[in-house]
Specification:
The protein has 231 residues and is α+β, with helices and mostly antiparallel strands. The protein has two domains: 5-83, Membrane-bound Lytic Murein Transglycosylase D, Chain A; 107-230, Roll (Membrane-bound Lytic Murein Transglycosylase D, Chain A). It has helices at 7-23, 48-55, 59-65, 122-129, 133-136, 178-185, 189-195, 201-207, and strands spanning 37-40, 80-83, 107-108, 113-115, 155-157, 160-162, 164-172, 213-222, 228-230. It has a three-stranded mixed beta sheet, with no helix packed on it. A two-stranded antiparallel sheet has the order 1-2. It has a two-stranded antiparallel sheet with strand order 4-5. The chain is globular, with a radius of gyration of 19 Å. It starts with 6 loop residues before the first helix and ends with a strand. Mean pLDDT is 88; it is low at 1-23. The structure holds 2-acetamido-2-deoxy-beta-D-glucopyranose (8 copies). Keywords: Signal.
Length: 231
């Protein structure tokens, strides 16, 4: 198994722990279930939130333990989810992309195509990319709405700001989720997903000694103050 936490996750864990020792003074560590096991998903759709509820773990604790891209992606039937030991202060929040009312109409640097996963809607994709859903849907067929379920395994063209660029950095992923990487490297969950369209956490966690290698889009920036949107 991969040597887990890197420096940045450690400091995150420490600050959460410091906060929670106040908040959960009543938590009796001895009554926690410290077992860790593989949970096999038996129905569709059962979300990672359902699994968290059922196993009484924090959804973000599960997400990070499994190197999940995003906990809002619905697992397939028979997918194995590694359940972490129970903790006093389950984290259900810090891995979720906040509703931040995006104002951008295009992404910097690319890539051009987003590959849909289980549970996607235009709304969700736009949120992952931090662009407006209207701009993402500009070229979609008329019968689609922002919340229509999209079939997984299809390409959606993402509007690109031109001229713009990113630096691509190969990165060995050994702890956390895409939101942690996006926050640390100043990029978006959506752009990381676009660069590794078939990323599958369950195969990564089970089969890997050192963690999967993905590409990170970093330093994504406009190259002019006169930006046009390429659809
Ligand atoms: C922890 O939970 C699992 C699954 O519910 C259960 O099988 C196991 O016996 C529990 N462990 C303890 C120590 O209670
Ligand atoms: C987080 O989720 C777990 C399991 O779903 C639940 O038991 C817990 O109360 C939640 N904690 C918070 C702070 O919402
Ligand atoms: C990931 O891989 C597992 C088994 O290796 C498979 O069961 C699952 O369907 C795959 N998940 C996705 C999202 O492709
Ligand atoms: C985003 O918009 C919603 C309502 O449309 C509002 O409730 C929320 O506070 C806004 N969020 C931010 C970060 O501005
Ligand atoms: C989203 O984009 C806005 C500008 O449109 C920026 O201020 C904000 O920091 C971005 N948020 C994330 C999480 O990338
Ligand atoms: C699992 O789900 C993904 C979408 O999230 C889909 O593309 C893939 O084909 C599925 N894999 C299997 C083995 O069913
Ligand atoms: C929308 O129309 C397209 C053809 O233009 C069709 O392939 C698709 O299935 C329709 N989607 C829905 C949700 O009706
Ligand atoms: C901005 O770029 C577009 C297309 O590249 C060009 O037509 C337009 O004149 C430019 N506007 C300014 C203010 O430079």
């Amino acid at each position: 198994m991969a040597p887990r936490p890197r420096t940045y996750t450690l400091s995150l864990l420490f600050s959460v722990a410091a906060f929670s020792s106040l908040a959960t003074a009543n938590c009796n560590g001895g009554s926690l279930n410290t077992s860790s096991w593989y949970y096999s998903v038996e129905k569709y759709p059962a979300t990672v939130f359902d699994v968290a509820q059922e196993t009484r773990r924090g959804v973000c604790d599960i997400g990070r333990h499994n190197l999940m891209a995003d906990v809002t992606i619905i697992p397939n039937i028979s997918q194995q989810i590694w359940i972490p030991p129970q903790v006093c202060d389950p984290d259900n929040k810090t891995c979720l992309i906040p509703e931040n009312n995006a104002t951008s109409h295009c992404i910097y640097g690319g890539p051009r195509l987003y590959y849909t996963v289980n549970g996607d809607t235009y709304d969700r994709i736009a949120q992952r990319l931090n662009i407006t859903v209207e701009s993402l849907m500009e070229k979609s067929s008329g019968n689609m709405t922002a919340t229509t379920a999209l079939q997984p395994g299809q390409f959606v063209k993402v509007p690109l700001c031109e001229p713009s660029q990113c630096i691509l950095q190969p990165y060995t992923f050994s702890s956390g989720g895409y939101k942690d990487l996006a926050d640390k490297y100043g990029t978006t969950v959506g752009q990381i997903m676009m660069l590794s369209p078939t990323y599958n956490y369950s195969t990564s966690v089970v089969n890997s000694e050192s963690g999967p290698t993905i590409d990170l889009p970093i330093s994504c920036t406009a190259l002019s103050s006169n930006i046009t949107v390429v659809d």
